[in-house]
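User: Study the shape:
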Amino acid sequence: MADQYVSAMRWHELALQRWLYSRFFVSDGYPIPVVFTAPMDAFSYFEQLWKSENSPFQYLLDAKDDKGTPLYLPHPAPARYPVISVHRKGWKYRATQNYSIHQYRHINWPTYADNVVQGDLGRVTVSQRPMAWDFIYQIDHQCLYPGDQALFLQAAMSTFWRTGGGLQDWLRIAYPAPFLPKRVRLYVQGDGFDSLTPEETPSDRVTIYRTSFNVVIEGYLPNLRLEELPALWKFALNTSIPATPSTLETLFTQTTTVDLRTDANNQVMASRDNVPAPGTAAV
């Protein structure tokens, strides 16, 4: 169970990271660096990654301003603001959209072979349906200039245009096989964004302009405890127990084919208006 929850966190956090990288930019095409840590540790953690030989933020070295001047220089040049931090706030069970009481049948057949035999089709993979969980995160944007804060707020306000009563957007979560990717709702807790910039700072300190808001991902926890069960095809009702081989052979032998389009035996079609007469439908 612990592994499932760790994986669920990973799936949703990767989706949230992709969402942030697709919405907020240092300059066109260059996303603001995102770190998963507490807000007060965000810049130091970013700086630590910046110094790393395998830094995930090497793409920032190509970012330039309007005059073509590089915005970032390689280490040992210091890392620069802005930076976005993502801090886990909690996980809340969502009873209104929970499906785990129901069984998911059938997910698939337990074989991927090209030469499937009839015996392979006699078993199916089943599982309980996913549980519904809210994944709650605190997102903080920190920068050195009020203009950068204004650009971030403009992007944040614009990205939640699918309001429907609340500030919301949609994430594509890549749930593992055999469950398919699913779009889930991402919404802002409360009515908007909070400014945590100090009103007054000593003259010998740099002012950090900080904007904070909480988001909730209405995600799911798929049940990865898959089971294989026999597939029920037909009932054989017989007075002899067990059924004879000839009886079983008869059940799986096609004896005749009836095309309900071309005769009067299809009561659903017969009940509709403007249906061609029996024998006149295309084969």
In short: DSSP finds five helices and twelve strands in the chain. The first helix runs from residue 2 to 21. The two ends are 54 Å apart (CA to CA).
